[in-house]
Amino acid sequence: MNEHLKRFRVIVKALAPVHIGSGDEIGKKEYILCGENEIYFPNVAKMYGYFSKKGKAEEFERFLLNDGRDLRDWLRKNDIRRDEWNWGGYRLSRPAPQSDKRGVPVRFNEIKTFVKDPYGLPYIPGSSLKGALRNVIIGEMILRDKSGAFSKRKAELTQLRGNDLRRNSREIAKAHNEIVRRALFKLGRDARDFGKATNDAMAAVRIGDSKPLRLSDLTICEKIDSHILAEKGERPLPTFRECLKPGVSAEFSLTVDVGMLEAGTGGSGAAVAEGGFQHFFCPSRGFKRKEDGAILFEGSHLQNAVRKFNILYDDGFRKKFEFDADAANVIFLGGGSGFLTKTVLLALFWGDDKGRVDFVSRYMERAFPQNHKHDSDRTWGVSPHTAKLTEYDGARYEMGKCEMRIVPLKD
Question: How confident is the model at residue 284 (pLDDT cuts 50, 70, 90)?
């Protein structure tokens, strides 16, 4: 057994619908709405073969090219009954139709698909979990820093005013990259240029893709924006996603190459120790040991960093919407979970809510100028001014919320 490797099992449980996008979409001519609560995604090749046998291939091709109706309307017109829909594929539950402020139901259009393996089964890429943990670790290192280096980066951001946020997008990216380098680029594998990615301490952390999940673990969820002003309420949007159902758990393997952290050039071991990176994967004094000998990482420094991120997120954002406090081990994964879950701004502006709201509102105003009224965020005291929600089985959820647990494996 390699003594330089620490191995862990990571269990992530969806507390809310989670969408890990494949980058693909399924159009309304590729799925069938079945009743009020189900969508059928047929195997298109098998379906086309069936239409060919029935002499409907050319008519189906004309439908694909020129007809604006959805697939179910075309099937009705061509008298293809439901008991003939045996074309493989899979079926998912779907939400009840939501209505906009005018009372008009939001229509299904394209559906963003969940990432799947070569066998067609959904899974969560290790890179998704690693990105979320990377964000948590950087935030914790910002909070622990006493050198003032991150305060300087914050000052650079807050000095960008008005249209400078658009003109100086390179400066924003530069300041962000410097924050990342200050926090993580500590390996010293390239002593001539510590800003190179080869010095990124996260290279020593390898997270495999989750074990395959089942298609029955998926559902369809709609994007819902909840405004900070109660009178504006919730706004259902015509964005639909394949999501993991609440309650589904995914399991990952996590390996830390301690040898990589301790080795390198230019005194990198000391640099890593000073940066506090390695300690994230060591148990703190509060760890718990079960009767079977397994150590639950509930008291690890990494788990504590996750808890601290939740405190920042609760105080800086969630409480503004009067949501209940999060569970201690919550981490946000996937698309649609909201801007602040993907950045280190909560940590960077800790203790300066006004400064954070001012910066984020100006950034949002320039990034999304289409009358989203982000210039009013400073008045409302929160930015962004909408929480990203979805609906499942008649209940509202914060998009992407998961519970994470890390268990060390015995050598």
Answer: very low
Residue 295 domain-assigned (yes or no): yes
The dihedral formed by the CA atoms of 84, 85, 87 and 88, expressed in degrees to the nearest 10: -130
242 and 295 both lie in a single domain = yes
Dmax of the chain from CA atoms? 75
Indicate the length of the chain as a whole number: 411
Domain count, the chain: 2
Q: With beta carbons less than 8 A apart as the criterion, state whether 372 and 363 touch.
A: no
Which has the closest alpha carbon to 7: 205, 187, 170, 145? 205
Strand order in the sheet with 249-257: 205-207, 249-257, 5-14, 401-408, 330-332
Q: Is residue 275 part of a domain?
A: yes
Provide CB contacts within 8 A for 304, sequence distance 6+: 284
Q: Is residue 113 part of a domain?
A: no
Q: Are 375 and 361 in contact (CB under 8 A)?
A: yes
CB count within 10 Å of CB 50 equals 18
Which region among 29-43, 195-209, 228-242, 250-264 has the lowest average model confidence (pLDDT)? 250-264
Residue 244: inside a domain, yes or no? yes
Amino acid at position 205, single letter: V
Q: What is the number of H-type helices and E-type strands within the chain? A: 13, 16
User: Domain containing 128: what range?
Assistant: 5-22+122-408
Q: Are 175 and 88 found together in one domain?
A: no
Residues 215 and 67 in one domain: no
> What are the pLDDT digits (tens) for 100-134?
666 667 788 899 999 999 999 999 999 999 999 99
Rg of the Cα atoms in the chain: 24
Extract the runs of DSSP E, i.e. beta strands, from 301-364: 330-332
Contact 157, 199 (CB under 8 A): no
